Amino acid sequence: MNSILLTVALVGAIGLAGSTVLVFASKKLAVQEDERLADVVAILPGANCGSCGYPGCEGYARAMLDGAPVNACGPGGPDAAAKLSAYLGVDAGEVVVKRAIVACRGTADRVVLQERAVYHGDHSCRIYATMGHLSDGCTDGCIGYGDCVATCPYGAISLNKNQVAVVDPAVCIGCGLCTTICPRGLISLVEKSDVDEVSFVLCHNTLTGKRAKDACANTCIGCRRCVKVCPKHCIEVVDNVAHIDITKCVGCKVCMGVCPEGAIYPLTWVTR
Amino acid sequence: MAQYASILFSMILVNNFVLVKFLGICPFLGVSKKFDSAVGMGAAVTLVMVLAIAVTWPIQQLLTAWGLEYLQTIAFILVIATLVQLLEMFLKRYVPTLHASLGVFLPLITTNCAVLGVATLVVDEGYTYLESLVAGLGAGLGFLLAMVIFSGVRRRVEEANPPEVFRGMPITLISAAITAMSFMGFSGVIDHLFGA
Lengths: 272, 196
Known about the structure:
By secondary structure, chain A is an alpha+beta fold. In chain A, 34% of the residues lie in helices and 12% in strands. Chain B has one domain (2-24, 32-194).
């Protein structure tokens, strides 16, 4: 009995002495936090996605108190920017609408899927891409194991019936997490320009002619027809793939009409 | 005087807590990316080690006198946790940049086995109060030395542009192992220097 009391008393005494020191220290060494910080954090959506370029919502809130622009929050959109500008008394500025897009349309019978059938490793695009395959197929297209699907915190990406990842523009908030996941670098963030709809090449296939068509039916073969017809001269072919400068594209869709392979697709944004 | 020097240098080089005893690996890998934060972390751990021993050594005498040696771990952890909290408040108030760069590793010193390790080690070795303080200082300086050396190693490794599969943690662990191996070369040096 005596030793139990002694034990409790001793540990209690150490704890009491320590906490007393800490209580005094916390009073003496207290740091003045900006009381607006909690309010600003409350306005932000709290997704901690990092699309603003700061570490988490609290990091962005601190930066805003130091004068960072209030329009960088992707998930919050114009709503959050308006509330923040009202609270902090600064100009909201224009919110850039961004979305991710997977630059591959694939087909259900593309060669990558046939090669995938004899692969017995883990079902992950990133692991599959590290294997040294000798491939007859497109080595730039969607592998279709859906690493990006698992990464998206908002569930905006899904695999379509052709086993190709597709971003739902109505759900995507443009945080950019998926862009770093894809081992083929197919996913990019695109910023909305003045027009609501532009043309976009949904292909990264660098193979040419027949090889490209054998690998996947929905491929850009680098024929340059779109380059010739574009009234704004905003298309160029690099490594046998057409690239459209969407900041100059006016959405006239002439290129879509002439593409023999149907590789060019309209790209739309959904403004919330 | 010779025995203090012997304890100090053997703690820094021969019994280096990180590279020879493999204690406190977590901050060693976590905070060694940048030289400044590595030095900050090393200094913080050194301070906590010396302060912890200054408090835990008398407590240990009390525990031994009352036959309560089994309370050693919980009593020491309590003391170390208090000291780390105190240190965190102090850094937040006076060195906010260091506080930010140390991040979560600062409160993690609480459960850093190197700190608890040195506190129990000096008891096991039967050091006097002064010897224990010197041992704590040596262990802390050894930790600091390891952090500083390794932050340099990591910078050079990063600049050397390793193959993609090794980039990041894998090459860090490999270089940590090689750095640790180099410290094995110190074993026996102190015995010959001080004839202990």
